[in-house]
Amino acid sequence: MNSKDLVHQLDSEVGALLLRSTVMSDISEELNHLQIDMDETKPELAIYYYYEWQRKVRMLSQLMHYASQDLEMSYENIHSIKEDLFHRFVKEVSHEQ
């Protein structure tokens, strides 16, 4: 792969990383809302909300799992591209001098 392709791939991966970071923030915000709802509910009424809360926790847990995996994959791809670019440019420049 040539340097131009690597730079385009890096740009794409950084965009994907930012998108996945936004998804993680959205999940965090939803968890915060759920916590507030649970904290503000009177204990005697909590039983009526149990299944709704359970469904939300299950859904958010799965989203967090997949978003975390995607985030890790993006990081690994970016790291690999960075290493390749470093090898091409920094080591080549040091050998030329």
Task: Outline the secondary-structure elements.
Layout: H1 3-40, H2 46-96
Q: Residue-averaged pLDDT, rounded?
A: 91
- Total DSSP helices: 2
Percentage of residues in strands: under 5%
- The secondary structure category is mainly alpha
The counted number of beta strands is 0
Q: Can you summarize the main beta sheet?
A: none
Principal-axes shape call: rod-shaped
How far the N terminus sits from the C terminus, by CA atoms, comes to 25 Å
Helix content, binned percent = over 70%
What is the H-and-E element order?
Answer: HH
Give me the Rg, rounded.
Answer: 22 Å
Low-confidence stretches at least 5 residues in length (pLDDT < 50)? none
Please describe what this structure looks like.
By secondary structure, the chain is mostly helical. 92% of the residues lie in helices and 0% in strands. The protein contains 2 helices and no strands. It has helices at 3-40, 46-96. Helix 1 (3-40) runs antiparallel to helix 2. The longest helix is centred in the last third of the chain and has 51 residues, at 46-96. The chain is rod-shaped and about 75 Å long.
Task: Summarize this structure as a short list of keywords or feature phrases.
mainly alpha, 97 residues, 92% helix, 2 helices, rod-shaped
Quick summary of this structure?
This protein has helices at 3-40, 46-96.
